[in-house]
Amino acid sequence: MRATFADFTIDPPRFGNGTARYERCHPDRDRLAIGAGGRVELDFALDDGELPEQLTLTLIARVSPLGESLGCAPIDITVNGHAVIGQFTVPGGARPREVAFAVPGEALVAGTNTLCVRGCAEARGLLWLYRVTVEPSRICARIHLMTQEQPAEAAVCVYRTEWRAPGSAEWRPAPRLLVHLDRGEGSLPARLAWRGQDGAEASIGFQPTMTEFYGHRRAADGTLTEYRGALEGRSALRDSALEEVMHRFRTEEGGAAGDGRRLSQELRLLIEDGGPPVERVIWGDPSGHSGTVSLLAAEPGPEAEVTDLVTRVRAHSEFTDAGEVAENLLHDSWHKWLGHGGRAWLEFTLRRPIAVGHYVLTSANDVPGRDPRDWTLKGSNDGEHWVDLDTRVEESFAHRHQPRGFTFPAHTAYGHYRLEITRNAGEDHVQLSQVRFFTSAPHPRGFIGHYQRAGEAPTGYHGTSLSATPEPESAKALPRTVEQWRSYLAEYSAAILRVADDEDLSEVGDDQRAAGWLGFEGADEESVLALEERLGTRLPPSYRAFLGASDGWLNISPFMWRMRAAKTVGWLREADPETWAVIRGGEGEDWDDTAFMDRALLVSEEGDAQHWLLDPADVSEDGEWAAYIWASWYPALGDRHASFAELVAEERTGFEEQAALEIRMARPGSAGELVAEGRAQALRGEVRKAMATFEQAAVKGSGAGAYLGTILGAFLDISVAHHWIRNRVLGDPHVIEVIGMEQIRAEAAPLYLRCAAEEWTGTPGGYVSALGDILPRLPDGVDGVVGAGGVSAGSAATEGDDIAAWGARAAAFVPPVLPESRTFQQALDLARALADRGAIDQSWAVIEAALPHWHSDSPHRIAPVVLLTDPAFREVITPARARRVVTTPRGEFRE
């Protein structure tokens, strides 16, 4: 027989192979509420030839709470009047539970069978019923509770593991395994398989109580082993450190053929096997339900990185003469650290104690046999007494310059971290290219997959992270209030008006252009109330506020030219009956949107063969309606958006990605806030965060953001700085206009000349020509060079006399000197004198001591660039010291 089910998590409920009727019950959002004496009956049919020995009845339910206490809602369950169980209470808790019972064959009849779930008269609360399933039996006991109150259900299971090669009798210790998988239904996994980002795969099966597992594992290099584990303990989810590494997703089911999406229970997922983060998970439970998810990976965000707080790194040994020193581990470069022996240690001292929960090791450029294999990361607050934080064994790097991340629960903040490498891959040296520290691991942005209940067809399964760092820019804070919409739309208007041509803006009036506003006066409350009365429902919050900010809109996306005003908004079937008649059915089995089109609200007016629609039947807890785009080039409806605001933000993001270069000139207001935030981060020494923030500002049109990010980048890696200066500063008139020619001549130009000169290979003119308007003009014939003063600005020099001409102009260039504070200027003068006498280290000591006192009143200065441009400091400021300059808190942010 096929499974019979009633799914009350959607409205209206969905039934499979049966019909239902209720008495003294009522729908309550995503469930059916059964009170004292209430009942739900489910009819299903069985043929003579398929009467089974028993069936399995599964309920997903929860008892409503009474204040802060658990409620009491016992139920009686019968099939054809035959008692299955009486006075049964679903185990209490904050989440729905899955319980299963055996229905004996003698209770079943050929033809129609009736299952009855009835609330007992003494109930002091409600039974919230989410789903009922009747299916061929997979249990042998008369009654089998799938999710009794047992520690594993609300805990992370920690396993001590081993593996052995095929044919070998010896089991070897393997990294511990942490497992937690919960769809909000309380069911424990019976089998589990996963794949790591490095390609390693594992597949295991659990004992019913999850105390042991057995399976196999294939490593990233293809090595196959048997794999087993024994339960070492269970860690409660209330442990905040485990909550930080737990992946939590808001989920939806549906999306398979002819099946619309609907909200589902939250998914909690944690699988830590000692390797890279997991990218795919497959599981099954004892009831025969199964699922698979593929995670949308995310890189560690700059907001979590604390590598910039490292003030010193030491190693057991390093190759100083070759420049392969421990300091290189803190750089984003191709340089490396190399140490003697097959064992090694590295110590990192931070500016202040930080709770590190994730670190990244990057393999070096050559000799895989030098890669670390076994190591322990330790923490200390005095540099003498160390605590083990994370231990790894049998690790490997698949290729050169491969970054691998490792996560562990971050309980305590430490000021010192020590990486003890106890074994390498077999060579006589150990090496790494980079080490980075983070307060937390990167969280997947979401997942795609499918879920299949026993006896049913698979359905789509989608998730959005509840714990990943929100994206910056327009998607960071979706507008909901009238004031937020006005600010959001003003910024969006500025970008569109700057890059759109006259044809795109044909309907935009002169007043709108002058005001930088593609909208209209906002609808007053009376107009919005009149619309709601006409529709017979209250509008979703974000769209209601949008009308209050602007009653209609022009050019909200490249393909949507006009949004409707309140007086013309209406149900699609009434507001545009011709379109409704055309698109309500579609063709083929894969598309049937008739019901949706009959209830959809049309909020757009004119576009490029597309319509914007809101769904009043898909409402979130905060009252938002799902939003869609129907377009003639889509095979069906477009992607689901949780709200009108989310749809607008998605379209804006697409516009900004397509027009990124032109938007650099748009100068929207939020870019100034980003520059101020980035400057504060830079002066605090948070270089990577500042670089990311300046990049956001540059994309939003800020010349200051482009300039400050370029200058900061020069301190991190001067070898490539001339490329960025040429393209992002000297080649962008907007940047030069914002920063001013005086500062360009004092900082960017000499820095560019230094970097370009170090990269010249006999043809310097192609680099220097970018300075055509900055370098001094020399008269014809100077130093015997013909045409030295006559090369046009911006032209590329050729071989021969023109190259010499450019060289002469560069040599004659004397950059202006920007003012420094008295304290820092005195330190510069002393440091120059020491450097002239060859006292390089003493010169650096003077500069380092003065760095916290450096400051500038100019908002476009964030570091003493003179340290990179003055030839007197060429030997003093090594790449490691240049990085130290910008990671040292300065001015008002000094510690």
Largest sheet: 12 strands, antiparallel, barrel
- Please count the beta strands (DSSP E, at least 2 residues each): 41
* Distance from first to last alpha carbon: 73 Å
Helical region count? 22
Unreliable parts: 139-153, 468-476, 586-591, 660-669, 783-801
Shape assignment: flat
Oligomer status: single chain
| β-sheet strand percentage | 25-35%
Structural class: alpha+beta
Radius of gyration: 33 Å
Percent range of helical residues? 10-25%
Write out the strand line-up for the largest beta sheet, numbering strands in chain order. 12-13-20-18-34-33-22-21-14-15-16-17
Averaged pLDDT: 82
List keywords for this structure.
alpha+beta, 11-stranded antiparallel sheet, flat, Knr4/Smi1-like_sf, Galactose-bd-like_sf, Knr4/Smi1-like_dom, Knr4/Smi1-like domain-containing protein
Walk me through the structure.
Residues 522-650 form the Knr4/Smi1-like domain. InterPro entries: Galactose-bd-like_sf (IPR008979), Knr4/Smi1-like_dom (IPR018958), Knr4/Smi1-like_sf (IPR037883), SBD (IPR040964). It comes from Streptomyces mordarskii. With 895 residues, this protein is α+β, with helices and mostly antiparallel strands. The chain is built from 22 helices and 41 strands. The chain has a twelve-stranded antiparallel beta barrel. Strands 1, 2, 3, 4, 5, 6, 7, 8, 9, 10 and 11 form an eleven-stranded antiparallel sheet that branches. A five-stranded antiparallel sheet has the order 23-25-30-27-28, with no helix packed on it. Helix 11 runs antiparallel to helix 12, helix 12 runs antiparallel to helix 13 and helix 13 (703-716) packs across helix 15 (733-739). The longest helix has 19 residues, at 741-759. Mean pLDDT is 82; it is low at 139-153, 468-476, 586-591, 660-669 and 783-801.
